[in-house]
Design goal:
Layout (H helix, E strand, L loop, with lengths): L1 H9 L14 H4 L3 H10 L5 H35 L6 E2 L2 E2 H35 L1
Helix pairs in contact: 3-4, 4-5
Length: about 130
Amino acid sequence: MAAQVTVSQLGLVSHRLVAQPYQWEYPYLLSIVPCALSLLALPRNNISYLVLAMISAGLFCVAPLIYGAMEMFPVAQQLYRHGKAYRFLFGMPLMYLVVVVAVLVHGWQIYYSKRLLDQWFKRTQEKKK
Protein backbone atom coordinates (compact mmCIF):
# COMPACT_ATOMS: atom_id res chain seq x y z
CA MET A 1 0.00 0.00 0.00
CA ALA A 2 2.88 2.33 0.81
CA ALA A 3 4.35 1.50 -2.58
CA GLN A 4 1.16 2.58 -4.31
CA VAL A 5 1.10 5.89 -2.45
CA THR A 6 4.75 6.50 -3.31
CA VAL A 7 4.18 5.65 -6.96
CA SER A 8 1.11 7.87 -7.24
CA GLN A 9 2.69 10.87 -5.52
CA LEU A 10 6.16 10.73 -7.05
CA GLY A 11 5.34 9.16 -10.41
CA LEU A 12 8.42 6.91 -10.27
CA VAL A 13 6.99 3.96 -12.21
CA SER A 14 3.74 3.05 -13.90
CA HIS A 15 0.79 2.10 -11.71
CA ARG A 16 0.59 -1.21 -13.54
CA LEU A 17 3.92 -2.36 -12.09
CA VAL A 18 2.78 -2.02 -8.46
CA ALA A 19 0.63 -4.84 -7.10
CA GLN A 20 -2.78 -4.08 -5.66
CA PRO A 21 -3.01 -4.56 -1.88
CA TYR A 22 -4.98 -7.43 -0.43
CA GLN A 23 -8.30 -6.56 1.23
CA TRP A 24 -7.03 -7.53 4.69
CA GLU A 25 -4.25 -4.94 4.51
CA TYR A 26 -6.69 -2.06 4.86
CA PRO A 27 -7.99 -3.06 8.33
CA TYR A 28 -4.43 -4.01 9.32
CA LEU A 29 -3.52 -0.33 8.90
CA LEU A 30 -5.55 0.25 12.06
CA SER A 31 -2.94 -1.73 14.00
CA ILE A 32 -1.48 1.62 15.03
CA VAL A 33 -4.48 2.09 17.36
CA PRO A 34 -3.34 -0.49 19.96
CA CYS A 35 0.12 1.06 20.01
CA ALA A 36 -1.32 4.51 20.63
CA LEU A 37 -3.61 3.22 23.38
CA SER A 38 -0.70 1.41 25.02
CA LEU A 39 1.35 4.59 25.01
CA LEU A 40 -1.56 6.50 26.55
CA ALA A 41 -1.85 3.85 29.30
CA LEU A 42 1.76 3.97 30.41
CA PRO A 43 2.24 7.38 32.07
CA ARG A 44 -0.44 6.94 34.73
CA ASN A 45 -0.88 3.15 34.76
CA ASN A 46 -4.31 3.54 33.20
CA ILE A 47 -5.92 0.10 33.23
CA SER A 48 -8.84 1.01 30.96
CA TYR A 49 -6.56 2.15 28.13
CA LEU A 50 -4.52 -1.03 28.45
CA VAL A 51 -7.64 -3.19 28.24
CA LEU A 52 -8.76 -1.28 25.15
CA ALA A 53 -5.29 -1.75 23.65
CA MET A 54 -5.49 -5.51 24.21
CA ILE A 55 -8.94 -5.78 22.66
CA SER A 56 -8.03 -3.62 19.67
CA ALA A 57 -4.79 -5.60 19.18
CA GLY A 58 -6.89 -8.71 18.74
CA LEU A 59 -9.34 -6.99 16.40
CA PHE A 60 -7.01 -4.83 14.32
CA CYS A 61 -3.76 -6.83 14.42
CA VAL A 62 -4.29 -10.56 14.79
CA ALA A 63 -7.69 -10.96 13.11
CA PRO A 64 -6.73 -9.29 9.78
CA LEU A 65 -3.51 -11.32 9.67
CA ILE A 66 -5.37 -14.60 10.15
CA TYR A 67 -7.91 -13.58 7.52
CA GLY A 68 -5.04 -12.59 5.22
CA ALA A 69 -3.40 -15.99 5.63
CA MET A 70 -6.67 -17.63 4.56
CA GLU A 71 -7.09 -15.22 1.66
CA MET A 72 -3.55 -15.85 0.40
CA PHE A 73 -3.83 -19.64 0.64
CA PRO A 74 -4.94 -20.19 -2.99
CA VAL A 75 -2.00 -18.10 -4.22
CA ALA A 76 0.44 -20.07 -2.08
CA GLN A 77 -1.08 -23.33 -3.25
CA GLN A 78 -0.72 -22.27 -6.86
CA LEU A 79 2.93 -21.29 -6.31
CA TYR A 80 3.59 -24.69 -4.77
CA ARG A 81 1.95 -26.53 -7.66
CA HIS A 82 3.92 -24.63 -10.28
CA GLY A 83 7.23 -25.19 -8.48
CA LYS A 84 8.25 -21.59 -7.86
CA ALA A 85 10.88 -22.68 -5.33
CA TYR A 86 12.56 -19.28 -5.16
CA ARG A 87 9.50 -17.94 -3.37
CA PHE A 88 9.74 -20.53 -0.58
CA LEU A 89 11.90 -20.55 2.54
CA PHE A 90 11.94 -23.45 5.03
CA GLY A 91 9.19 -25.11 3.00
CA MET A 92 6.78 -22.19 3.45
CA PRO A 93 5.91 -19.34 1.09
CA LEU A 94 7.71 -16.12 2.04
CA MET A 95 4.44 -14.24 2.39
CA TYR A 96 3.31 -16.74 5.04
CA LEU A 97 6.55 -16.34 6.96
CA VAL A 98 5.94 -12.60 7.16
CA VAL A 99 2.40 -13.19 8.41
CA VAL A 100 3.61 -15.75 10.99
CA VAL A 101 6.21 -13.32 12.33
CA ALA A 102 3.61 -10.53 12.52
CA VAL A 103 1.16 -12.78 14.39
CA LEU A 104 3.93 -13.74 16.83
CA VAL A 105 4.83 -10.11 17.49
CA HIS A 106 1.22 -9.12 18.08
CA GLY A 107 0.67 -12.21 20.22
CA TRP A 108 3.59 -11.18 22.40
CA GLN A 109 2.12 -7.69 22.54
CA ILE A 110 -1.15 -9.07 23.91
CA TYR A 111 0.62 -11.49 26.29
CA TYR A 112 2.84 -8.84 27.86
CA SER A 113 -0.04 -6.38 28.03
CA LYS A 114 -1.97 -8.99 30.01
CA ARG A 115 1.00 -9.51 32.34
CA LEU A 116 1.31 -5.76 32.85
CA LEU A 117 -2.43 -5.47 33.44
CA ASP A 118 -2.27 -8.19 36.12
CA GLN A 119 0.56 -6.37 37.91
CA TRP A 120 -1.21 -3.02 37.76
CA PHE A 121 -4.43 -4.55 38.99
CA LYS A 122 -2.66 -6.30 41.87
CA ARG A 123 -0.94 -3.05 42.85
CA THR A 124 -4.23 -1.12 42.88
CA GLN A 125 -5.83 -3.83 45.04
CA GLU A 126 -2.92 -3.62 47.51
CA LYS A 127 -3.29 0.18 47.72
CA LYS A 128 -7.01 -0.18 48.53
CA LYS A 129 -6.26 -2.45 51.50
